[in-house]
Amino acid sequence: MKRRVPTLLAASALALGAVSATAPAASANAAKAAPGETSLAGLLTSDGNQFDKNTSDFDIVTEAALAVVGAKPDSPVALLADGSQRLTVFAPTDQAFRLLVKDLTGQTIKSEKKIFESLVALAGVDTIETVLLYHVVPGKTLTSGKVLKSGGAKLATAQGGKVKVSIKKKPSLSITLKDLDKSDQNPKVVLKALDLNKGNKQVAHGIDRVLRPIDL
Q1: Mean of per-residue pLDDT scores for the chain
Q2: Which helix (H) or strand (E) holds 28?
Q3: Which of 20, 129, 168, 214 registers the highest number of CB atoms within 10 A of its CB?
Q4: Nearest to residue 210, comparing CAs of 118, 134, 137?
């Protein structure tokens, strides 16, 4: 089933209007080194964005963005389609959403489509929007190198809450994001899914669980 994320998000991003100040004119050399403006929406839908059996990709979070923007065209979630806006996303894999549904319902659901439908039924669009925005760090392009230098830092999210970065380098590298749920396991950054869309103003890093903006 084809998704309409790029069209919907792009239209909504235009509706939001310009949200950043105009930068001073850059030199020709600086312009060549300037980051690209391929949006995360464009990247995440480049594979056709279909529910599948690959638990390591991002079909559910992309479909969640579609649902939010379809219901709320002026949602800040639409900025994921505006590649001129700097932001960093910690993107939950499809397996992360499967674990969330299991936590909430006690059921293990294999179908990505049914996982998504369960989330909509359980939470509603407004809550899904809040959760998605909690995964977005606006105004910053945080590549993995910058994340690794931010150990102990608290990142302000588009939802309004903060996420703490915890880094362990021994015995092997581990990056944990500490959310506002004190009783649940914190997400870890998927090291094989770092720097998605690198070279552009919008980048993403995969995480193995969904960040929670409240204590569930």
Answers
A1: 86
A2: helix 28-33
A3: 129
A4: 134
Determine, yes or no, domain membership for 155.
no
Q: What is the DSSP letter of 188?
A: B
Residue 51 domain flag: yes
Structural domain that includes position 112: 5-17+36-141+189-207
Q: How would you label 54-89 residue by residue, b for 16+ Cβ within 10 Å and e otherwise?
A: eeebbbbbbbbbbbbbeeeeebbbbbbbbbebbbbb
Answer yes or no: is 31 within a domain. Answer: no
Q: What is the DSSP string of 65-77?
A: HHHHHHH-TT-GG
Which tens digits make up the pLDDT trace of 101-122? 999 999 999 999 999 999 999 9
Contact 9, 81 (CB under 8 A): yes
Does residue 171 have a cis peptide bond before it, meaning omega lies within 30 degrees of 0? yes
The amino acid at residue 93 is T
| Whole-angstrom distance, CA of residue 81 vs CA of residue 64 | 14
Instruction: Give the tens place of pLDDT for each residue, 65-97.
Output: 989 999 999 999 999 999 999 999 999 999 999
Q: Number of helices (H) and strands (E), helices first, in the chain? A: 7, 6
Give the gyration radius of the chain's Cα atoms.
Answer: 17
Total domain count, the chain: 1
